[in-house]
UniProtKB/TrEMBL annotation:
CDD domains hit by this protein: NTP-PPase_BsYpjD
Location of the NTP pyrophosphohydrolase MazG-like domain: 23-99
Pfam families: MazG (PF03819)
Protein origin, superkingdom: Bacteria
Protein name (database record): Nucleotide pyrophosphohydrolase
Stored SUPFAM superfamilies: all-alpha NTP pyrophosphatases
InterPro entries recorded: MazG-like_dom, MazG-related_YpjD, YpjD/YvdC
PANTHER family to which the protein is assigned, alphabetical: NUCLEOTIDE PYROPHOSPHOHYDROLASE
């Protein structure tokens, strides 16, 4: 699925099944909550924390998809074309970081 298609599908879902978008600030809070759920799962899967019974059934892919969903909602309601934004961001990083990481002794 292309990013543009994802934005369109989520917009359609929100306007039908979801009724309407939550406010931008509510979606920002939800995004923070969803990122926290990813962090919680990562700390148990790859970090030192043990799983709680309530976390054992959670899947990283599903939690990351939740983050992506809310991010796309915020982009849609603020009129951000994520394809264009990502292309511009990659161009910026290619210019700014062309040699930065190659010269980082910590990464060798």
């Amino acid at each position: 699925m292309e990013i543009k298609e994802a934005q369109e599908l989520i917009d359609k879902w929100i306007k039908t099944t979801g009724v309407r978008y939550f406010s931008e600030l509510t979606n920002m809070a939800i995004l923070t909550e969803e990122v926290g759920e990813v962090a919680r799962l990562m700390s148990r899967m790859y970090g030192d924390q043990s799983f709680k019974e309530s976390d054992k059934h959670k899947e990283l892919a599903d939690e990351l998809a939740d983050v992506l969903w809310v991010l796309i909602c915020i982009a849609n309601q603020t009129n951000v074309d994520l394809t264009t934004a990502l292309e511009k961001n990659l161009e910026k990083k290619n210019i700014r970081d062309a040699e930065r990481h190659k010269n980082n002794e910590k990464l060798k």
